[in-house]
Amino acid sequence: MRQAQATRTCTSSAPILLVVCLLQSMVALGVDYAQKGDEYVQQEFDAGRFVGSVMVARSNRIVFMKGYGLANREHNIPNAPDTKFRLASLTKQFTAMCILHLQEQGKLSIDDCVCRFVPGCPSNWSGVKIRHLLGHTSGITNFTDFPDYASKMMLSSPPEKTIQRFRDAPLGFEPGKRFAYSNSGYILLGYIVERASGRSYEQYVEETIFKPLGMEGSGYDHFETILPHRAAGYSRRGDTWVNSAYIDMSIPYGAGGLYSTVEDFFRWYQCWRERKILSASSWTEMTTAGEWNYGFGMWISEHFRRTTQKVFEHGGHVSGFATSMKWFPDADLFVAAFANWDSARTGEIAENLAAIMFDMPVTLPKERKATGEQSVPTPPNHRSQWPPRARPLCIPRPLLGATAAEHWAALNTSHQQQLHENIVHSITGLSISHDISRRLSELIPPATIQTKRL
Questions:
Q1: 391: buried, middle or exposed (CB in 10 Å: 19+, 13-18, 0-12)?
Q2: 175: Cβ–Cβ under 8 A, 6 or more apart, which residues?
């Protein structure tokens, strides 16, 4: 309806109305995407296929962010944007960043042999480099595939003890010759972070990544810690919810020991889009796909659903939790879906949310199951509510008291773009891209603007 109204208004030939028409259209589209995304996730929740929190961001602004279902079923606490979920294997990208950060400090090289940092290193690891661990090409056996893994996952296991479990196993192949996903490799990487830095893995991640980025809702998960807004993890037995099997969080370590929120993952998205923490060369190393479409801690695909959209992505599963994130650099789009249910379809949900943003068809769930709960909206006064109330419009001081034509001509392109963005965001809480701002500037030259004062 809003788009139709905007289209009818645009029949006027007055150039100044073109601004209003384009802004109305963009506002309608932004609201439409948020509504479509929310409706889609709500249907997944109603069908009994998702419980958790999601976040979609584009052009450095959040499109929508919301929790669905319960974070704690015993106390009837709803999921929200600041609910803390175990990240599982999304931890790997943070571990990879720590390794590259240490390389920049001269503490290690990713072409170092892992034996430099592992006392009593087995002889068959002599050809294994840190690079191989980062890209899952080391040949080191994945200890989470061992038959006794489930029986031992509830026992405390510092990294040295975990490494003992797989250090004597034969390599599956010559390092660098094949790809085999291995949590063992990222256990070793977490241990190397400690040996090279002289600090604990937890401390290094906190000081190097979380604090600089303002990710206050993120950290290393310890069962004994009193952690506000922590989600409880669940499994299903038929139609019955049960507490998930216990896992001592010392075990996943650098392969899956961190927790975070979808709210914090907006800051992580900003880190990716602005290439913070690391140098440009390190970012290139981290985001360059190897022969098997894996970078460092991240899958990389050149074609999302047979399009030319490049996507960096990863998923994670750990007892009681499932996670997924996708980053589309060319479209400046980021999607995160976290669930406190270990069978939730987070990868599919994140993919479909991206597809909605790209105006691609999405198959909605057909089967509807009685979940025994309702999606609980975030309270109006909740600090994580999105979209927020409109911001006050910020106009550069020199523009006040002067004609628009005079000062529009004086503004450089970036200031014109920022003014367009401020106008839209102050009215709607939504964002427009710099590309759209640039096109507005091209469509409305100073000569078409009357002498009306701002």
A1: exposed
A2: 127, 128, 129, 132, 137, 138, 139
Cis peptide before 387 (omega within 30 of 0): yes
Q: Which residues of 204-234 are buried (b: 16+ CB within 10 A; e: fewer)?
A: bbbebbbeebebebbbbbeeeeeeebbbbbb
Domains and CATH numbers, the chain: 82-357 (3.40.710.10), 397-448 (no CATH)
User: In sequence order, what are the residues at sequence separation of 6 or more whose Cβ sits closer than 8 angstroms to the Cβ of residue 127?
Assistant: 113, 174, 175
* Torsion angle in degrees (nearest 10) through CA of 194, 199, 204, 206: 140
β-pairing verdict for 258-260 and 70-72? unpaired
pLDDT for the residue 374: 52
Q: Please report the DSSP string for 78-91 in residue order.
A: EP-TT-BEE-GGGH
pTM (predicted TM-score):
0.78
Beta bridge partners of 294: 299
Average pLDDT over residues 325-348: 96
How high is the pLDDT of residue 395? 33
Whole-angstrom Cα distance, residue 146 to residue 166?
9
* Coil, helix or strand at residue 16: helix
CA atoms of 66 and 45, how far apart (whole Å): 12
Structure tokens at 108: 């290690």
CA distance 259 to 36: 28
Integer Cα distance of 183 and 261 in angstroms: 23
- Give the separation between CA 312 and CA 182, rounded to whole angstroms: 19
Tell me the residue type at 323. Answer: T
Instruction: Please report, rounded to a whole number, the percentage of residues in the chain having pLDDT higher than 70.
Output: 74
Alpha-carbon gap, residue 318 to 71, rounded angstroms: 16
Residues 6+ apart with CB under 8 A from 17: 9, 10
